[in-house]
Specification:
This protein is an alpha/beta fold. The protein has two domains: 218 residues, Rossmann fold; 143 residues, Phosphofructokinase domain (Rossmann fold), CATH 3.40.50.460. It is 33% helix and 20% strand. The two termini are 37 Å apart. About 3% of the residues have low confidence. One of its GO terms (molecular function) is 6-phosphofructokinase activity.
Length: 413
């Protein structure tokens, strides 16, 4: 039998676990009876359009530790892009070239690892494949720290980011509580439209610390006057108040609460900055207290030294599941997780049609936000807690984590 090859690429923002999914795809391809080689496109779909590939099968053969190191290396070994394919009915030149590459490389399945915008690419390529009668299987492998992909319980990368955020909030509490003076610390966390990451800050709470004392998510309108009232109330109970806030909080009219004008990316998403700083100024203007804002920013995305073992294991398994789905003949779909139980924590791996996922976003259920709209419920915490469990194994060199060489991403083409 003439075996086919597979092609895999990564797109969108980085995470601590996206390479674990790549490692899963590679391992399943090597173990497959149906596929021969696993090629990786550099910088997402742009790598296909520029014919820029790595033979990942050779990499794994040359280095017996390659898959193991890939599994613990943060961000994207293959690099990324934020490229929006045009509608093929308007311009099919990119599609025609991509599928000519599939034929050239004898590709039987294409796996695209990414978030919402990447699933848009999976949808478009799937539709085009059906239009031209191609038998190449097109399958999405999820990732996004934002945890906003529909039809899946949670996404790879979210658990590790949640673990980092919770750990950081606890450390901020230790830093702040040492001073016997009234203070407010505002921590801005990523989340343009969904507050999953900000909600994860509640996992920092323990027997001696209830920080963060206030949590504000973009799913409900933000009221400045109520915010000041909430802060005053918390200051009446304790010296140090710690607040977690999503970057995407907005008022009842839908206007973002930022300290600077937002720009838009190629997909039309506003690039936000300054929600924490805006609230810092608001507190300074209304309350005579020491106040500072902290923007965690990109640190929460690729903190592999605090990765969740559960997250990495599930990400690897979802990469393997994508290959299995293609061998079963599935296409135009994305790997999904279905939670069976919280205690003991169990999930099963399945798939959902990409048309029901692409260009949609999953918000935090409003019933998981408290009545005062400044905290989350215990049910939400029970959902979050299993996702950060377990410490990933790391390898060190000269005291620094050892990751795979990514110099191929910094080469001029």
């Amino acid at each position: 039998m003439n075996k086919k090859n597979v092609l895999v690429a990564q797109s969108g923002g980085p995470t601590s676990a996206i390479n674990a999914s790549l490692a899963g795809v590679l391992k399943a391809t090597i173990d497959s009876d149906n596929y021969d080689r696993c090629y990786g496109a550099i910088n997402g779909v742009l790598g296909v359009l520029s014919e820029n590939y790595l033979d990942l099968t050779d990499k794994a053969k040359e280095d017996s530790d390659f898959i193991k190191l890939l599994n613990q290396t943060p961000a994207m070994y293959l690099g990324s892009c934020r490229f929006k394919l045009p509608e093929y009915r308007d311009d099919d030149s990119s599609y025609s070239f991509i599928f000519s590459q599939f034929r050239k490389l004898n590709i039987g399945a294409f796996f695209y690892i990414g978030g919402n915008d990447s699933m848009d690419t999976v949808l478009k390529l799937s539709n085009y494949a059906r239009e031209i009668g191609s038998d190449v299987k097109i399958i999405g492998v999820p990732k996004t720290i934002d945890n906003d992909l529909c039809n899946t319980d949670h996404t790879p990368g979210f658990g590790s980011a949640a673990k980092y955020i919770a750990s950081s909030l606890l450390e901020i509490a230790h830093d702040t509580f040492i001073y016997a003076v009234k203070s407010v610390t505002i921590v801005e966390i990523m989340g343009r439209d969904a507050g999953w990451l900000t909600a994860a800050s509640a996992l920092a709470r323990n027997g001696y610390s209830t920080a963060p004392h206030l949590i504000y998510l973009p799913e409900v309108p933000f009221d400045k006057e109520k915010f000041i009232s909430d802060v005053r109330h918390e200051l009446s109970k304790r010296n140090n108040v710690i607040i977690a806030v999503s970057e995407g909080i907005r008022d009842k009219d839908g206007n973002y609460i930022t300290s600077s004008k937002a720009m838009a990316d190629t997909f039309g998403h506003q690039q936000l900055s300054g929600a924490g700083k805006a609230l810092e100024f608001l507190v300074k203007e209304n309350i005579d207290v020491k106040v500072r804002s902290v923007e965690i920013n990109v640190l929460q995305r690729c903190a592999a030294h605090l990765a969740s073992k559960t997250d990495l294991d599930e990400s690897f398994a979802q990469g393997k599941k994508a290959v299995a789905l293609s061998e079963e003949g599935q296409t135009g779909c994305m790997v999904v997780l279905k939670r069976i139980s919280n205690a003991p924590y169990q999930v099963e791996y399945s798939y959902a049609q990409i048309k029901d996922i692409a260009n949609e976003a999953k918000s935090v259920p409003v019933e998981w936000i408290n009545r005062e709209e400044n905290d989350i419920t215990e049910e939400f915490i029970e959902y979050l807690r299993p996702l950060i469990v377990g410490e990933a194994e790391h390898y060190y060199e000269n005291g620094i984590p050892k990751y795979l060489d990514i110099s191929h991403l910094n080469q001029k083409h």
